[in-house]
Amino acid sequence: MAITRSTASPPHRFRLGGLLAAALLWLAGSAHADDIVAVYAAYWAGIPAGEIQIRLHDGAAAYHDEIEIRTTGLPALITRLRGTGIAEGRLAADRPAEPSHYDAIYDLWKRRNSHISMRFVTRTGTVVAERGPDDTSRKPPLAEKFRSNAVDPVTAFERVRDALRAPRRSADGSFAVPVYDGARRFDILGHILPKKDATEGTLRAELTLRAIAGFKGESSDDGDPDSAPRKVDLVVTDDGRMMPLSITVPVFFMPLVVQFVQFCASAETCPELK
């Protein structure tokens, strides 16, 4: 997502805010299970950075996720991010999750009522992400080859969770998920780590976010932190739900940590994001 710069503020302030906002939005989509409502808290360099509430539903043949997020503390002063994301798609036995549409509506600093809208359409056997009628993106979409056979960030974690449930599909426990978020194309490369103790109730995986297209610094010899490979440490419950317990990713050389807080009986009983 782009952030309009002011001549009165240093550029690194906005790059920091953009990275934090992007990381929080991406990490917000990292849990999915049957009719689950859960709360997460995010910390950057040990200080409060954000709050996330996720509302998830798996049907026999479809999934529906709703995510609400807001920044807190220092990131709130920089980004003033608050947003809601919705993703829906199809589920079928022995097939990865297939998205049908993805919408994210958010406020970010001076950009109000921004809307990322994607619809996934099939053309000659290829699934292509196209912008929906409500999309307010300012940048032109990436070339079709970067929008083909990729999934939105929320559906990506449907696929990650599926890979964690079935590690035997890969001899070394590795997997890859192609992702397009409406502006950028990247891969999630994963590797399931062996357990030290078979009785552990958690499972750990190492993820790498590898930039493909749409990132800053692509034509620069010096590179750019936005496009550098980013390591992610993921810990999930070792059960059928594969519910994330913690996610850690470096942002400007300091850790952004998203931690599970609590389950809720319903969205109405969860603490409201203020």
Give keywords.
single chain, 274 residues, mainly beta, 4 helices, 47% strand
Low-confidence stretches: 1-17, 28-33, 218-225
Principal-axes shape call: globular
Number of helices: 4
Tell me the series of helices and strands, N- to C-terminal.
Answer: HEEEHEEEEHHEEEEEE
Mean pLDDT: 81
Q: Please report which band the strand proportion falls in: under 5%, 5-15%, 15-25%, 25-35%, 35-45% or over 45%.
A: over 45%
Give the radius of gyration.
18 Å
Largest sheet: 13 strands, antiparallel
Number of strand elements? 13
Level of helix content? 10-25%
Strand arrangement, major sheet:
7-6-5-4-3-2-1-13-12-11-10-9-8
Structural class: mainly beta
Question: What is the rounded distance between the termini?
Answer: 23 Å
Describe this structure in words.
The chain is mainly beta. The protein has four helices and 13 strands. It has helices at 11-28, 73-78, 144-147, 153-165; strands at 36-44, 47-58, 62-71, 82-92, 95-108, 111-123, 126-131, 174-180, 185-192, 202-213, 230-237, 244-251, 254-264. The chain has a 13-stranded antiparallel beta sheet with strand order 7-6-5-4-3-2-1-13-12-11-10-9-8. The longest helix is centred in the first third of the chain and has 18 residues, at 11-28. The relative contact order is 0.16.
